[in-house]
Each structure stands twice: as C-alpha cells, then as structure tokens.
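Q: My labmate handed me this sequence with no annotations at all. I'd like to see what the chain might look like in three dimensions before we decide whether it's worth expressing. Could you predict it?
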Amino acid sequence: MRTWAVERRRRTRHLIELGGLVVKAGVVELTNDDRAMIYGALIWMAETLRSEDGEGARELWAGKGEEGFGNDG
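A: Here is what I predict for the chain of 73 residues:
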C-alpha cells in the first residue's frame, strides 16, 4: 500500500475515534445533534485550555475522562 494511502487511513481512523468520543460522552444527544453548538463548545474548550486556567482544566478533564473510561467495564 502506498504511503499516502496508509496515512489517509490512519487519519480517517483517528477522526472516527474522536467522533466516537463525542457520541460516547452523550454530547450528540444532549445537543440534539446541533453541530454549531458542539463546535462552539469545542472552541470554548480550546480557549479555556489556552487561558491561565488551562492547566486546571486539563487536570479536571483528564480525571473525568479516565473515570469515564474506567466505567466502561
């Protein structure tokens, strides 16, 4: 398989996994699949990470994520 095809598949898999996290967190249902709202929340999250509160947010969100993955059984 060509290098570009391998990279494309890797990128596609990565994007699918990220989308799966949005679904897994319940965001799609909670927003009624409002993509503008989901995108706005992601922009807010990025702004928070860039702010002086970024490190605290990272710790909080990473803990929540680890907890969520731990509950998957």
